[in-house]
Amino acid sequence: MGQIYWTDIVIVIGLIWIVFDLIFGFDYSSDIINNITSGLYVIYATLLPIYWKGYIIGKRVMKIHIERIDEKPINFWTMIKREVIGKQLLAYVSLGIAPILSAFMVGTREDKRAIHDFIAGTHVFRDEL
Question: Beta strands of 1-129 (E only): which ranges?
């Protein structure tokens, strides 16, 4: 999970910061820029898997993708439950405990499912070679 996340952070947020700098000349430490960047990342992580069949850039590089447990195609509601409710909202209301618990679940569960996977009915699947 960590390597995938950092691959996406470097690529996606790096590109956003470059564009902001070229257009607006913003300070990267600005709370406004950090909030906008975080929001754009959530949009990226929510929408790209719908159109890219379960992939984001980091998952494509690692040759893994998101699938629904019922084997239906990834849709908008699935990704809202996974990214917005299962990751963002739950992290906020649990004061950061949910992401720690999710990391523990991924590290110890045989199926590697985290809290957001249970909420959305998804799992991460390794691509066949």
Answer: 64-68, 122-126
Greatest extent of the chain over all pairs of C-alpha atoms, in Å? 47
pLDDT in tens, 41-94: 899 999 999 999 999 988 888 899 999 999 999 999 999 999 999 999 999 999
Q: CA-CA-CA-CA torsion for 80, 6, 99, 123, nearest 10 degrees?
A: 50
In angstroms, rounded to a whole number, what is the distance separating the alpha carbons of residues 29 and 113?
34
Between β-strands 64-68 and 122-126, what pairing exists: parallel, antiparallel or unpaired?
A: antiparallel
CA 6, CA 37: separation in Å to the nearest integer?
14
Residue-wise pLDDT tens digits, 98-108: 999 999 999 99
115 exposure class (CB count in 10 Å sphere: 0-12, 13-18, 19+): buried
- pTM beyond 0.85: the answer is no
Measure Cα distances from 110 to 92, 106, 128 in Å. 27, 8, 19
